[in-house]
Inverse folding.
C-alpha cells in the first residue's frame, strides 16, 4: 500500500509503513533474544531492547495518526470516509500492512475530533462502489482488480486515477447523505446553470441527486438567500433539536463546496453569503457559536486570499482580523499564562486555548494583507503565541 489515504482534492498521504521500516532491526533483536538463556540477565536486556523497538513503532504510529487526523479535521467542515471492514482485511493476505496502518484507530480519531471541533462526520457504506463509478457521469465500470490504478470512462471519456475518483465519489455520497433531510438547497451560480458541462467533476453527479428541493427536479432553484431568510423568519417558537441543526449544517456544507471551488470565480462570494445565512440558522437553532465563527472565519480568509479584498466588509482583511480578536474567549495575557503549563490545566481551560488556536488559524492566510495598526500588531502577537497553544 503506497498511500495511507487519498483526499477529494487529490492529495495522496504517503503510507509511513512504521513496522516494515523497522522490521529488519526487529528480526535481528528477536533472533538475539531467542539465543539467550532463560532467566538470565542478558535475556532481560535483550527483551528490553525488543520492547523499545516496538514502543518506537507504536509512538511513531500514534504521532502520525494524531497529526494527520487533526490536520484533516481543522481544514475541513465535513469529513466523509468509507466504512472499512478492518477486521476482515486483517485476516487477508494484506494482514501485516493493514494492522500496521491502524485504520480503525485513525477512523476513531477522526470521528472524535470531528465531534470536538463541530465538524460533520459521515461514514459511507462499505458496499458503496466508490472505485467503480465515474465522478463525472456516474457510469459504473464494474469490478476492477487491485492492479488497475487508473481507467478511462467509456461513457464520457474522462481519465481517472482510481483512488482520486473513489475519494470524489465518497465526497459526493457524503454530501448527499448529509443533505437528505433538507427542504431547500442553495441556488446554483449562473455559470453552472448556463453551462452545466463546466461544473466541477466532483459536483456534477450531485445535480441529479436529492439535494434539490421537491418540485424543482429540473435544476432551477429560486434565490436561495431569500429561501434561507424565509426559513429563519419562521423559526420563532420552533422547538429546536439536533435534527434541525443538522439540516442547517447540511445546507452550509453544500454551499461550502461551491464556495471553495476555484472554477466558480467571483460567484464563490455568493455561495459563501448563502452559506453564512445557513450558519446563522444553525446558530439560532442551538449550534455552538465558537464552531460557527470558526467556519465563517475560515471561509472568509480563504476567499480574501484567493480573490482579494472586496467592497463588502465581509471581504475586508482588517475587518476579519478584528472579528477574530473579538471572538476569542481569552485575552492574550491570559492565554500566554495558561499555555506555559496547559497540560496541567482543567479541561475547560484547555478547550478555551484550543478554541483560540482554531479561531486564529484563518488569520495566517491574510497576514500579508493587513494594514499597519493596533489590529495587525495584536494579530502578530497572537500568531507568535499560536505554536504554543494545544
Amino acid at each position: 500500500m503506497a498511500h495511507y489515504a487519498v483526499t477529494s482534492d487529490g492529495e495522496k498521504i504517503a503510507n509511513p509503513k512504521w513496522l516494515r521500516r523497522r522490521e529488519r532491526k526487529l528480526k535481528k533483536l528477536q533472533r538475539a533474544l531467542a539465543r539467550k538463556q532463560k532467566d538470565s540477565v542478558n535475556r532481560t536486556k535483550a527483551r528490553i531492547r525488543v520492547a523499545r523497538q516496538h514502543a518506537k513503532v507504536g509512538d511513531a504510529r500514534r504521532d502520525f495518526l494524531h497529526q494527520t487526523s487533526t490536520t484533516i479535521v481543522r481544514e475541513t467542515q465535513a469529513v466523509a470516509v468509507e466504512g472499512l471492514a478492518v477486521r476482515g482485511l486483517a485476516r487477508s493476505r494484506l494482514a501485516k500492512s493493514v494492522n500496521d496502518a491502524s485504520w480503525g484507530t485513525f477512523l476513531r480519531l477522526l470521528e472524535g475530533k470531528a465531534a470536538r471541533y463541530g465538524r460533520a462526520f459521515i461514514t459511507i457504506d462499505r458496499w458503496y462502489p466508490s472505485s467503480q463509478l465515474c465522478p463525472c457521469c456516474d457510469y459504473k465500470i464494474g469490478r476492477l482488480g487491485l492492479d488497475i490504478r487508473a481507467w478511462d470512462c467509456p461513457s464520457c471519456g474522462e481519465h481517472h486515477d482510481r483512488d482520486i475518483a473513489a475519494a470524489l465519489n465518497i465526497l459526493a455520497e457524503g454530501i448527499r447523505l448529509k443533505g437528505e433531510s433538507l427542504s431547500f438547497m442553495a441556488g446554483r451560480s449562473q455559470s453552472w446553470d448556463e453551462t452545466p458541462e463546466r461544473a466541477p467533476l466532483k459536483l456534477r453527479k450531485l445535480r441529479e441527486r436529492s439535494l434539490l428541493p421537491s418540485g424543482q427536479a429540473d435544476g432551477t432553484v429560486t434565490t436561495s438567500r431569500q429561501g434561507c431568510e424565509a426559513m429563519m423568519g419562521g423559526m420563532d417558537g420552533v422547538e429546536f433539536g439536533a435534527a434541525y441543526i443538522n439540516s442547517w449544517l447540511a445546507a452550509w456544507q453544500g454551499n461550502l463546496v461551491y464556495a471553495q471551488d476555484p472554477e466558480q470565480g467571483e460567484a464563490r462570494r455568493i455561495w459563501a453569503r448563502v452559506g453564512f445565512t445557513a450558519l446563522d440558522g444553525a446558530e439560532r437553532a442551538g449550534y455552538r457559536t465558537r464552531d460557527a465563527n470558526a467556519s465563517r472565519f475560515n471561509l472568509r480568509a480563504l476567499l480574501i486570499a484567493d480573490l482579494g479584498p472586496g467592497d463588502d466588509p465581509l471581504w475586508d482583511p482588517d475587518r476579519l482580523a478584528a472579528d477574530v480578536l473579538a471572538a476569542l474567549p481569552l485575552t492574550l495575557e491570559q492565554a500566554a499564562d495558561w499555555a506555559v503549563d496547559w497540560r496541567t490545566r482543567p479541561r475547560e481551560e484547555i478547550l478555551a486555548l484550543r478554541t483560540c488556536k482554531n479561531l486564529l488559524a484563518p488569520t495566517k492566510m491574510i497576514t500579508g494583507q493587513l494594514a499597519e495598526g493596533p489590529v495587525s500588531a495584536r494579530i502578530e502577537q497572537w500568531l507568535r503565541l499560536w505554536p504554543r497553544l494545544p
Summary: The beta strands are 3-6, 12-14, 78-82, 120-124, 150-152, 159-161. Residues 1-124 form one domain.
